[in-house]
Each structure stands twice: as structure tokens, then as C-alpha cells.
Write a structure and sequence with these properties.
The chain is an alpha/beta fold. The protein has nine helices and ten strands. The protein has two domains: about 80 residues, Arc Repressor Mutant, subunit A (Orthogonal Bundle), CATH 1.10.10.10; about 210 residues, D-Maltodextrin-Binding Protein, domain 2 (3-Layer(aba) Sandwich), CATH 3.40.190.290. Helix 1 crosses helix 2, helix 1 packs across helix 3 and helix 2 crosses helix 3.
Length: about 300
């Protein structure tokens, strides 16, 4: 190899690695899919190596492609950081940040925070991905994300955002029609609202297993928004963190002695974490968690040591 590969070719390589298909990469890059194929062919010829295995299902990185990936990501991060610095980003954040968050957390907690942030940074834009699952940072679906399972491989900045408790709730109408709940043993005779068990975004969401018996799940939903509505309509008991519970009295706390503890983690690819626009969103979420513990644990209930 007599010459170094062009950065633009490496950018095409990155987007194809993330999208997995020519059509997906072409949409990200806003070019024709034939252009993507031509750039990849040129890069492979220049490097003298095959970077992708081609199949009907799409493009999958070869071992050589996997080895190239972190170097290309580092170059991308350096290019983004240089563009921000030249543009004066050390003073104010600008550009678009894609933030992936669990659906209810995004609506109830994150969205209200963004008004102040955007007022402070008029050149900043946010793509808020409220998802019934967790954002895939490996394929750059989001620049940073809040999740229950932090990345264990790859180059990421990861921090514990908050420990939080799931408590039992029910509607007053449900409680009026069913036997009283005074001990955990009484729960065995009640109906529950839960996640669809074979569609769990994380094993951490199987908190009903901590009841000590197999609950009678009368309705299961793929997301917490639907669960909240079902429980509010009296379809059964549900477990949820404090920030998810509406303040209109449609759901009330049941059996105060029972709870399940989990942790939210905040993560971002290392190269993106260095960007000013990503850092201001990161810091916003950290400050919210530190200043508003009542969103995660009801008053009078301390966090467990972890």
C-alpha cells in the first residue's frame, strides 16, 4: 500500500458497517447505493483486504474489517472534534445530538429538561429517541443512551446515572374490587400487568420474578406506556419507578414494604463523548439525577448500597 486511504472512503466503510446494507448506508450518506459499493470496492483494493462478507442478508465485517473499525471510529471522532473546535464549539454547543432513552423516562423526565438546555444553546438540536427498548450505540443509532445494561465491549464512556426502585401500584378501582393486600403473600391472588416476557429489552425488566411466585399476568405489553394505561384502567397491579407514575391519582402505591432495585447507566462512544454537544447533554442528565433523587426513589426510602 503506497498511499493512505481517503477519509471519505473510511466514512463509507463506517456507515456500511453500522447499517449492514448498501441501501441503509446510502440513506445515511445521502448517496446512491452504487456509490457506496464503489467506494468500498476501492477501499478494499487499496488495502488489499476484504472488509465485508457479502450475502443476501447484507454486509458483515470480516476479521480484517473488525480490526479496521476502531481506527476508523477514532478518525471520525477526531474529525468531528476538529470541526467543533474550529466552529467555536468550545463556547457553545451546536449541531445535532441523538439521545436514546427508555420511552417513559424520555417523556416524563428528559423532554422537560430540554427546554432549558436548548435555550442555553440556540445552535443545538436534539433527536430524542423514546424507545420501548434500548438504543444500539454500536451501530450509532444514538450518540449517547440511557440503559439498564451498560456496554461491556468496545470503546465507551459509561457511568451509573441513578439507582432506582420499582414499586407496586394499582388503580383505586382495582383495589376496591379485589381482596386487600396487607402482606406479600396476598399478592398471589391478584392480577398483574407486565412486559411481554419473550420481548424483554433486558433481563433487568423481569422484576416480577422477585415476588417469590409466578404472577398471574392478565395483560402484557411491549412498553411501559401501555402498562401504565392498563393498570390505570384497573386491569391489574404493576411495578414502576416513581417518575413513571402520573400525579392524577389514577395509580396508588401498594404494599410499601416491597420493591425491586435497578440502575440506569449512561453511555456514549468514546469518540463522541469528547464532543461539546454530546457532553452538554451528558452533563444535563447527570445533574438531573443528582438533583432530583425523588424521581427514582420515593421519599423516605433510601437507596441500597451498590
Amino acid at each position: 500500500m503506497n498511499t493512505l486511504p481517503e477519509w471519505t472512503d473510511l466514512r463509507f466503510f463506517l456507515e456500511l458497517a453500522r447499517a449492514g446494507t448498501l441501501s441503509g448506508a446510502s440513506r445515511r450518506l445521502e448517496v446512491e447505493h452504487t456509490t457506496v459499493a464503489r467506494r468500498i470496492d476501492r477501499l478494499e483494493a487499496q488495502l488489499g483486504s476484504t472488509l465485508f462478507d457479502r450475502s443476501r442478508e447484507g454486509y458483515e465485517l470480516t476479521e480484517v474489517g473488525q480490526a479496521l473499525l476502531p481506527h476508523a471510529e477514532a478518525m471520525e471522532g477526531a474529525a468531528l472534534a476538529a470541526a467543533e473546535q474550529i466552529g467555536g464549539a468550545e463556547v457553545a454547543a451546536h449541531g445535532v445530538v441523538r439521545l436514546g432513552v427508555p420511552e417513559v423516562f424520555g417523556v416524563r423526565v428528559v423532554a422537560p429538561l430540554l427546554a432549558r438546555l436548548l435555550a442555553q444553546h440556540p445552535d443545538l438540536s436534539i433527536d430524542l429517541l423514546n424507545l420501548p427498548r434500548f438504543a444500539n450505540l454500536a451501530n450509532r443509532e444514538a450518540d449517547l443512551g440511557v440503559m439498564l445494561d451498560p456496554p461491556t465491549t468496545g470503546r465507551y464512556m459509561v457511568t451509573r446515572l441513578a439507582s432506582f426502585h420499582f414499586y407496586l401500584y394499582a388503580s383505586p378501582s382495582y383495589l376496591a374490587k379485589h381482596p386487600p393486600i396487607r402482606t406479600q403473600a396476598h399478592l398471589a391472588g391478584h392480577d398483574f400487568v407486565d412486559y411481554v416476557q419473550d420481548r424483554l429489552a433486558s433481563r433487568e425488566l423481569s422484576y416480577l420474578n422477585e415476588l417469590g411466585f409466578t404472577p398471574r399476568r392478565r395483560i402484557c405489553c411491549s412498553g411501559m406506556t401501555a402498562q401504565l394505561e392498563a393498570a390505570s384502567l384497573g386491569m391489574g397491579l404493576m411495578m414502576a419507578p416513581p417518575y413513571a407514575i402520573p400525579s392524577d391519582g389514577r395509580l396508588v402505591r401498594v404494599l410499601p414494604g416491597f420493591q425491586a432495585e435497578r440502575s440506569f447507566w449512561l453511555a456514549a462512544p468514546t469518540d463522541l463523548y469528547r464532543l461539546r454537544r454530546v457532553k452538554v447533554v451528558w452533563n444535563l442528565l447527570r445533574e438531573c439525577a443528582e438533583n432530583h433523587p425523588d424521581l427514582f426513589v420515593e421519599e423516605g426510602v433510601g437507596l441500597s448500597a451498590s
